[in-house]
Give the backbone structure.
Amino acid sequence: MKNARQVLVVEDEKIIRNTLREFLTSEGFFVTEAANVAEALALVRQRDFSVAICDVRLPDGDGIQLLKRLKQMNAELFVLIITAYATVENAVEAFKAGAYDYLVKPVLFDDLHHKLKQLFRYRELFLENESLRRELTRQDRFDDLVGSSKALHEVQAAIRKVAAAHSNVLLEGETGTGKELFARVIHRSGPRNREKFLAVHCSTQPVELLEAQLFGQRKGAFPGAQNDQPGILLHAGEGTVFLDEVGQLPLATQSKLLRAIEFQEITPLGGTEPVRVAARIIASTTRDLMREVAEGRFQEDLFYRLNGVKVRIPPLRDRLDDIPELVEFFIARHTAALGKRVSGVTSETMRLLMSARWKGNVRQLDNAIERAVIMCEGTQIEPKDLPPDLLGVGQILPDTDDLRSALRHYERLHISRVLRQWPDKREAAKRLRLGLSSLYRKIEELGLDL
């Protein structure tokens, strides 16, 4: 567990180290000691410290360079530099590197106590401001996800947790559910949101070109490779690489991707030396990867590497309550782009949109609204403005405000759909969470033709 009073002392002189430890322990701090740069880096990798007190001159490196490394590893770590020579140049160099303040040898305990008191007061304000900034930023970034359904809220809760870490993620969902949008939201809500987000579709190009795009190439690696190219995994730096339809990667390419994830290194096409990479992988798939593994089309090791953090993106039929908000959003976007004055849809159009099957999910709805805005002659989209293939795809909801009639109509549609999908009535009753006798009674009440 993080402790706000964890202090790391990095000092090669044992007497000074022990003296600092005794004083800081008496002041209520939890002190860990390191005698050199290597020990300090190893400790910071294992544990969270609030403050590091570092000597400038260490046997295996420079304290200023160590300061830079420590700040890279933990942005919330505040560093005090100890120097035997207090000059303006030294102070400027330390502050440029990110030091909070510096101490002059021999260290005066009153001076150290005063500086630590100020540091912790400042640190508390800094962390509070960072937390507020992240919260505001996160709210802004989640605005891209339109809707307020329970299904969408569940996904948002999941990706808030996922975004906080730099772990690899697998997004599962049908075609058109907006997996790339969710991937971008995860990236923009994460700790490295200022780094690059680069997307690659894994099934739209020849293997050589796909691997060159992912892992880079050396000049002459294959016909047409006229220059060295870094590859997206390297070019992304510490950002995110989105692999759309990862299930369609060839097996040989899967092996190379597995190595990139396991060992954080790649070998460019035509190259002999591995290159270090640090990008986060967010992969998406419309396929059942477990079945792909069982049938030998997807590597089991890669599956488990990607499947550690999995988020299922719901189809539009599972978030029907979001359709009115999505329609409003798409109308606003397309009217702005097309220069039209369409303000909404008629109630009949909305009933049709709410009852359509949406096999193409949100992408299909977006395309339908774009077409409707183009065809609309007034200010309200009518059913005739919608794509012809959409008409008749769904069953229009009853033209009534009576709740009982609407619920009965929906109940009839829903039970009919489940019975078509599960002809065994015991299984259908189980899916509907009804007793078998209750299902038979519903079939008779609703006059269902089986």
Q: What stands out?
A: The first strand starts at residue 6 and ends at 10.
